[in-house]
Amino acid sequence: MNLDLKLVLKNKAINGWRLFWLISTPMSIVMVIATLGTDMSTGAGVSEMIQFSVRWAVPIIFLVVAASSVQILIPGPLPVWLLRNRKYIGMCFAVAMAWQGTFIFIMSNFFREDYFKDVYLLRDELEGSIGYIFLTAMVVTSFNFGRKHLNPKQWKLLHKSSIYFLWAYPFSVYWWNLSYYENPQPIDYVFYWSGFIAFALRIAAWGKKRQQAAKKNVSERSTPFALTLLGSALITFGLFVSASGLYWQKAVTAFLTVPKWSADLVLWLPYWPFEPYLSLFVIGLGTLLVTKVRA
Known about the structure:
mainly alpha
């Protein structure tokens, strides 16, 4: 018997707050079991739980980032379901991050020597703190009591900025794991490419919307061949850059931090000088050129 996917995805058990509990409850149970099986009397044990909780949060934020793009690129019942439940999936991400925040609190208050020796960096502290501020703001404004204080443009700006920032942090971590260390773990490849694909889908969806808007506004449209060729070359080059960070990271970082002001910014400006995102910037520029319309 053939299943009607659209009908299945409308089941109350996998929608709304029931979906939230369906995901967050097993996640929390696993977190408690892992905590009981870890030596939490040592800084190393708490640090292990920080990393463990992050691995639950990362796939969720990448899924949230890709949700709207999938619906634009591949319309269908599954993307519609994903988009309809993005808020509740995002709340599951908040639960995972709450677990991480708990372990960071334990580490920083009860194992301060280990924290400042092995974990703490000013740049990481700034990125993490800003991320939690964004996350808190998103959670509060996901409900009517918080949302009523923002107009639609402010709400959209807050949530889009927050999602981008929260995506950028784990993506950069796994990019560095692949592009700086010579012996990365398999999970580093999985999470890096998942984060890359999630944002690349947003770029592709943006390009598709540009093309659709052009068709509405211009009766006869064309993209100059030179721009199409250049844009395609940039997209190809961006894909190459995304997969070869280990071979160019050191030279590019050295070049970008030659000025003293740039080297100083590395200490406190989140993500500076943005090496993990260079490939996506190049792909975005290529997409801009490919979808450039001339009437």
